[in-house]
Design goal:
168 residues; alpha/beta; 5-stranded parallel β-sheet; 4-stranded parallel β-sheet; 3 helices
């Protein structure tokens, strides 16, 4: 499936690397709100501009997207626009992540390298579980949450919508 990554910063580079393991995904563009200099790219993939380029990308076969922006409010706004456009919001799950079979994932979720997610966890839409985070049993992670690198949640924790759990 051809997809676009929304964002062109550090989080976008993390998501691109995660998606590079999936042979069914072809990243064709990074969409960023700042007008890029001519020919600007990330790992050979062009940075093409803001949301106004999405109809043309869709016309050229892009069917999915993922928002790769760490700021929760900005990520939420992008997610809602993409959903309204009918794009499939895909998940990016690093192959080194250890995820219990009973975990439920929403759409547009990023799970980074070295993450551990235990039994009975629910992760809602557009959440980021970043590098090396641990989410223990029966936690509920609501929409647009960012669990930062190295953070640990004990069992039966609920993290409310748009919350940032800081690093470590």
């Amino acid at each position: 499936m051809k997809i676009a990554i929304i964002g062109a910063g550090g989080q976008a580079r993390i998501v691109y690397e995660i998606l590079s393991y999936d042979r069914n995904i072809e990243v064709v563009a990074f969409v960023h709100n700042m007008v890029p200099e001519s020919g600007e790219n990330i790992k050979g993939i062009p940075i093409v501009g803001d949301h106004s380029v999405l109809p043309e990308l869709i016309k050229n076969g892009v069917r999915g997207a993922i928002v790769a922006v760490s700021m929760n409010d900005i990520r939420k706004a992008h997610f809602e626009k993409l959903r309204a456009m009918g794009l499939e919001l895909i998940n990016a799950v690093h192959p080194t992540a250890s995820i219990a079979p009973s975990v439920k994932l929403g759409s547009g979720v990023t799970i980074a390298i070295g993450v551990i997610i235990s039994t009975g966890v629910n992760i809602a839409d557009n959440a980021i579980i970043n590098t090396g985070a641990i989410v223990d049993h029966e936690c509920n992670i609501e929409d647009h949450v960012h669990i930062s690198s190295g953070s640990s949640l004990a069992g039966r924790v609920t993290v409310k919508k748009s919350t940032l759990v800081g690093i470590g």
